[in-house]
């Protein structure tokens, strides 16, 4: 992934956060990835770790329309995904016909052959082992994540073995900020 793409993603997300009055902490920990697939417009994610401690994590994510965070799961992390702005589409994968999760605090059996669409203000709690992918249905979505311990290095398992959590960076211009992974 080119540094210029990373810089542009950070600028675009920053503008959207400011437009919607989301104020970032000083020296935020940015994360921009194309998941090692080389096409950020179709497979990618821009996020900021707002509070990351050993026990818990909070992130704000800038998710673009049809820009997929690919099919993955976490063995340890439990996470609340909260759509703050726009509409977020989540696809679940399982050998079973449905997954049982809390949506807006209510347990539901969610068929894996249907997409879950979260409107602004709605949330879903993802438990460890639940395979999922997501993208924005609107031009973009601003999405919050509150979770147990976040370990991006050791607790992201992708269905496609070609997918990687971090991108190789091609330095074609100076960085606007250093990424959390650097």
Write the layout of secondary structure elements.
Elements: H1 3-19, E1 29-33, E2 45-52, E3 56-64, E4 69-73, E5 79-85, E6 88-93, E7 98-103, E8 106-111, E9 116-118, E10 123-126, E11 131-136, E12 140-148, E13 157-158
Antiparallel strand pairs: 1-2, 2-3, 3-12, 4-11, 4-13, 5-10, 5-12, 6-9, 6-11, 7-8, 7-10
Overview of the molecule:
9% of the residues lie in helices and 42% in strands. By secondary structure, the protein is mainly beta. The chain has one domain: Jelly Rolls, CATH 2.60.120.10. The strands form two sheets. The protein has an eight-stranded antiparallel beta sheet. A five-stranded antiparallel beta sheet has the order 9-6-11-4-13, with no helix packed on it. The longest helix is centred in the first third of the chain and has 17 residues. It is globular, with a radius of gyration of 16 Å.
Average predicted local confidence, pLDDT: 95
Number of strands: 13
- Which strand order spans the largest sheet, edge to edge or round the barrel? 1-2-3-12-5-10-7-8
Instruction: Tell me about the largest β-sheet.
Output: 8 strands, antiparallel
The level of helicity is: under 10%
What is the number of independent domains? Answer: 1
CATH class: Mainly Beta
Shape from CA axes? globular
Corresponding CATH superfamily: Jelly Rolls
What is the distance, rounded to the nearest whole angstrom, between the alpha carbons of the first and last residues? Answer: 14 Å
Helix and strand element order: HEEEEEEEEEEEEE
Low-confidence stretches are none
**Level-2 CATH architecture:** Sandwich
Task: Briefly note the CATH topology name.
Answer: Jelly Rolls
The radius of gyration is 16 Å
- Report the portion of residues in β strands: 35-45%
User: Helices and strands: which structural class?
Assistant: mainly beta
| Number of helical regions | 1
């Amino acid at each position: 992934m080119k540094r210029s793409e990373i810089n542009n993603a950070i600028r675009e997300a920053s503008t959207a956060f400011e437009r919607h009055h989301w104020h970032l902490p000083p020296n935020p920990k940015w994360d921009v990835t194309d998941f090692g697939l080389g096409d950020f417009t179709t497979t990618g994610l821009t996020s900021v770790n707002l509070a990351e401690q050993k026990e818990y994590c909070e992130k704000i994510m800038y998710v673009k329309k049809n820009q997929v965070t690919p099919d993955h799961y976490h063995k340890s992390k439990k996470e609340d995904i909260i759509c703050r702005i726009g509409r977020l589409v989540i696809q679940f994968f399982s050998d079973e016909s449905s997954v049982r999760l809390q949506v807006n605090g209510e347990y539901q059996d969610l068929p894996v052959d249907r997409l879950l669409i979260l409107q602004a203000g709605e949330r879903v709690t993802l438990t460890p082992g639940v395979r999922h992918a997501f993208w924005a249905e609107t031009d973009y979505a601003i999405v919050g994540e509150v979770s147990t311990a976040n370990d991006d290095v050791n607790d992201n398992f992708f269905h496609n073995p070609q997918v990687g959590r971090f991108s190789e960076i091609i330095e074609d211009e100076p960085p606007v900020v250093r990424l959390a992974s650097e």
